[in-house]
């Protein structure tokens, strides 16, 4: 094949989205504002939209993680000097972390490889294999449809009729790969574990489990590993933040009307077909819904509604804190991983249009939490594969603790 043909194939491959974006020389810094002026400077830097902020600018003495491209490195360092900001490098070369993350990936097998990050097809193939393996217990369900016509695939696990329901969703932010991996781990353990505590919890509830509720975005992370949003068309930019687009307190803080922003809330509540269709599925099971858990990364937090402001809390806020604290204590016993429990707006940042807030406000579901999984910034969204199983194990410990607590509590 001649060089012209090779070049043409490369161009075609890029145009149809087969060539991954590279992050060579990109660095992730943690900056800690120590004065009000420094805090304002970081907020102004974020508003420019030139840097990918991996965490929000919240308050004094709280670290802010952001990714800096090579072409802006000089400007960034000048900005730090101008405002006397100290910055610590957390990831020296983002592409090297991505390459390391992918280096041990193995192909799909019918048994499902829980130790590696799975592609969307691999996850869905495994989900579709489960009803034959567990007849009468597992059925596949379609929670909705995506902009690019992919199914939002999940499973319904039911050992007996009459149980209250638990809903698990992961992958609403595409780049947070540990979330779908953790949800699939939990599902696998609910089906296969011989541990008496897990068996009791598995059989005491109906489970609706959706590892990836943003399938287009997750699929696109094959091309751009750090893609966050959906893939809908919005003017000159693609996608909306699927966790700023739900219909409770939409656009009332922590979201953006700029379609190119990572926090773009969409053109209207439920403008994203993924959220609209999934909300309709949730509505169909809402009468039986007792627990709703949303899985994200990173920060090692267990978050209670609501996100739009700190003054509004659920009526059972005290119970949510009590159950949550016992859950994170159970989580910490296995590997010593430390989590913090708190209301979303007070503990993480202001954010509106969240899936958990919509569920909590509309249906008054008893337990509603957001898990922000490992880690606290060392690897950020690029958590190495060797941490998948430990993350899944400790998170399952927390979920088991939650269900055991409400099993033992009279309502």
Automatic annotation (TrEMBL):
Q: Which GO terms describe its molecular function?
A: metallocarboxypeptidase activity; zinc ion binding
Question: Which coarse location class describes where this protein primarily resides?
Answer: secreted
Pfam families assigned: Peptidase_M14 (PF00246), Propep_M14 (PF02244)
Which residues does the Swiss-Prot or TrEMBL record annotate as the active site? 372 (proton donor/acceptor)
Q: Where is the Peptidase M14 domain?
A: 116-406
Does the keyword Signal belong to this entry?
Answer: yes
The UniProt entry's GO biological process terms, in alphabetical order, are: proteolysis
SMART domains named among the record's database cross-references: Zn_pept
Matching InterPro entries = CARBOXYPEPT_ZN_1 (IPR057246), CARBOXYPEPT_ZN_2 (IPR057247), M14A-like_propep (IPR036990), M14A_act_pep (IPR003146), Peptidase_M14 (IPR000834)
| Subcellular location as annotated | Secreted
Cofactors named for this entry = Zn(2+)
- A Gene Ontology CC term for this entry? extracellular space
- Decide whether keyword Metal-binding is in the record: yes
This protein's UniProt keywords: Carboxypeptidase, Disulfide bond, Hydrolase, Metal-binding, Metalloprotease, Protease, Secreted, Signal, Zinc
Signal peptide: which range, if any? none
Q: What does this protein do?
A: Involved in the digestion of the blood meal.
Q: Which family does it belong to?
A: Belongs to the peptidase M14 family.
Q: What is this protein called?
A: Zinc carboxypeptidase A 1
Write down the species.
Answer: Pyrocoelia pectoralis
């Amino acid at each position: 094949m001649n060089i012209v043909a090779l070049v043409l194939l490369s161009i075609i491959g890029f145009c149809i989205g087969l060539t991954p974006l590279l992050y060579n020389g990109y660095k992730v810094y943690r900056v800690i504002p120590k004065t009000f002026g420094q805090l304002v400077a970081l907020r102004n830097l974020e508003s420019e939209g030139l840097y990918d902020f991996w965490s929000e600018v919240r308050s004094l003495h709280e670290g802010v993680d952001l990714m800096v491209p090579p072409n802006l490195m000089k400007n960034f360092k000048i900005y730090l000097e101008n405002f006397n900001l100290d910055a610590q490098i957390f990831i020296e070369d983002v592409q090297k972390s991505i390459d390391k993350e992918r280096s041990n990936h193995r192909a799909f097998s019918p048994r499902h490889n829980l130790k590696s990050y799975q592609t969307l097809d691999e996850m869905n193939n495994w989900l579709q294999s489960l009803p034959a393996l567990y007849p009468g217990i597992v059925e596949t369900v379609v929670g909705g449809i995506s902009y690019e016509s992919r199914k939002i695939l999940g499973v319904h696990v039911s050992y007996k009729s009459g149980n209250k329901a638990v809903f698990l969703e992961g992958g609403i932010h595409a780049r947070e790969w540990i979330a779908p991996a953790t949800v699939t781990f939990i599902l696998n353990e609910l089906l296969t574990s011989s541990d008496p505590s897990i068996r009791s919890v598995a059989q005491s509830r109906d489970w609706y489990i959706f590892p990836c509720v943003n399938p287009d975005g997750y699929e696109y992370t094959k091309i751009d590993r750090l893609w966050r949003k959906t893939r809908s068309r919005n003017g000159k930019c693609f996608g909306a933040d699927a966790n700023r687009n739900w219909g409770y307190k939409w656009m009332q803080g922590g979201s953006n009307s700029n379609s190119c922003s990572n926090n773009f809330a969409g053109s209207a509540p439920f403008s994203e077909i993924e959220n609209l269709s999934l909300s309709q599925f949730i509505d169909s099971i809402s009468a039986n819904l007792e627990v709703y858990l949303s899985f994200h990364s990173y920060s090692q937090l267990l978050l209670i509604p609501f996100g739009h402001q700190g003054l509004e809390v659920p009526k059972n806020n005290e119970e949510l804190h009590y159950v949550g604290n016992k859950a994170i204590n159970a989580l910490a016993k296995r590997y010593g991983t430390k989590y913090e429990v708190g209301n979303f707006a007070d503990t993480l940042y202001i954010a509106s249009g969240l899936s958990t807030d919509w569920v909590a406000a509309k249906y008054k579901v008893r337990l509603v939490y957001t898990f922000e999984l490992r880690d606290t910034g060392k690897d950020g969204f690029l958590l190495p594969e060797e941490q998948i199983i430990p993350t899944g194990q400790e998170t399952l410990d927390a979920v088991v603790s939650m269900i055991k607590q409400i099993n033992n509590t009279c309502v």
